[in-house]
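Page header: ASSEMBLY MODEL / two components / 736 residues total.
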Amino acid sequence: MGAEQAWVLAAIPAGVFLVLALFGRALPRGGDYLGIAAIASSFVLFFVVLADFLDTPGKIGPVVNDIEWSSIGETFTLRMGIFIDPITIVMFGVITTVALMVNIFSLGYMKGEPRYFWFYAVLQLFAASMLLLVMADNLLLLYISWELVGVCSFLLIGFYWEKRSATEAAKKAFVTTRIGDVGLLIGIILLWKEGGTFNIQELIHLAEEGHFSQPYLFTALAFIFLGCMGKSAQVPFHVWLPDAMEGPTPVSALIHAATMVVAGVYLTARLLPMFEVADGMLLVVTIVGLVTALLTGFIALAQTDIKKVLAYSTVGQLGFMFVALGAGEPSVAMFHLMTHAFFKALLFLGAGSVIIGTHHNQEMDRLGGLWKKMPITGTTFLIGSLALAGLPPLAGFWSKDEIFVALEHKWGAWAVILLGISAVTTAFYTTRLFIRTFMGRPADPHVYEHTRETPPVMTGPLVFLAVLAATSGFVVFHNVGKALGFPGGITEFIFLPHHGPHEYELKWGFAAASVAMAVTGIFTAGWMYWGNDLRRSTALANWQPRLYDMLRRKFYFDELYQGMIDRGVLGVSYIVSWFDRYVVNDTGVDGSAQITGFTGGVLKYIQTGRVPNYAMAVAVGVIGLALAGLAVRG
Amino acid sequence: MVPLENYLALSAVMFSLGVYGVLARRNAVLILMSVELMLNAVNLNFVAFAAYLDPGQIVGAIFAVFIITVAAAEVGLALAIVIRLFRNRATANVDEAATMKW
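Prediction written out in full:
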């Protein structure tokens, strides 16, 4: 099997999804072993594809394999196929690795839950759709899989549908991303209308040749970027992701941290050559990323739910990735995407381990000192936290550092300073999260006493991901990439065609500044929360109660949207419902029925039941027609 | 040879008499007879046109034969209905059979 057959990676989980969805209830253990076997085989086949891809003679180029899907006459032919390039390869690696770890982890986490088989079935559907998304060679196929991952997300957020909050969160996620998806569809149609093709590479080619006019391209890409913002939960669409934490924690790790939410980053990276052609589009991307990173960095400071902190952190880190894309560096964005996927999946699974270990407690106000009780979870969580904070030599440091370098190069110091503030808050809330969960005095002795370390089936994936979170940053180096069989470091693997590959070099000034930011955040948080002592932070909150309230309530985004729905949407709905009730129903539907009834009521008297009357009518009619015919002929 | 117009005139007269009978009579049997008159007027037309316009062929005559056949079947059916009517109402007056209305 070669890279041309990479569609098999998605086909296996898709087949297993069908089996599990139809027969899972009847299978022993809900068929979870089938799900894990499917993901594991995709994981293994990824390496086969990777080896084949790297062995392609000469320069590494994309692998294309497409078929004619349908054609209308001579003018329109729709081709569907797969397109494998370094970006896809990185996504493959991230998806299959994290999905495998999450599937194994779920064996422990979901044990004894209702609808166990359905959980595994949807996980397979998700893996299949996500793999399809990253290898689609045209926007139509991409859009289909884009919606498929969206529906998987919807199903899994609402997995505990007995809980009202879970169904509400699922609905919110679906509707919010839907707003962006409509934009994506409009953008795709706009590009197709002017370019005449859905194929991504052909569209990029057309854009580079100047086939599209500047305002047209900008509009189309802005619509597409709207879809990316919705999927990747960028401000102002970020509100759905924290609520999505209602889903089972492994789902949060897989879908809402490592893979689905980065689909927007992936699509922007994929179309980046077009974004570069459209003047001003990169600035839009940068500003959206910066605003998101800043806002969510501050919101996360005041959250007390472990998963909520991690969710806001995810939104912020996605902002970092968009900033990297805005700087015109897909390699850096993909690099941060990969390291973030590993350490954030680790953190979420760690949070899941805490939830199981403490018998469903995820409020920091009731945790503390768990490290002694859960040594493996605590240690791996620490590694993930430090990677997120950006401390060398862990993975997060290298990718975040690269973002700063790229940003300074493209947009100058102001952007770096803004992003730097976000980096400091990141280090701060991560440290706060770790201290208040794992260190110091237990906030609730009862919870502390009953806490147990989770079984190896859950700690195993934690350890594996911790190793990746610690080491995956090294792929930035030329020699590491070379030793692994790549053409070199990540910047020599992923690059824009006209920029060309370039070797990574460590900029000591940036590295020092980056470490300084991480250390500042860590030490401030350490000083404030050491020993899980809340006196200092409470004093700070009381000193500025309005500011604290603003952070706690997430800059009032939810209240704002609720107000908009109450006034705007409900107001319009009232008018629409009035129109529907009185104009459409009473006048249109009932009215036409009444006209028919009235006419029938009058005309029925013609039907006398007497045959001679009918015969007379026929005779008069025939004679009348004959006379009319004569008159017309003259 | 008798000219074609004579046949057509006779046919028209027969047809008109038939129409008058159908419209004016109230007895179902007489109405049926008037219908037969109309059908035979048509037959006469067919045969006359066949003889004058297309002597080599017999297409018009074949039509006439078909019409006679169908008319026989029609009369058989219609007389059965008239008998049922007479059994139920003790009359063959069509004005009495006027219950199928609004």
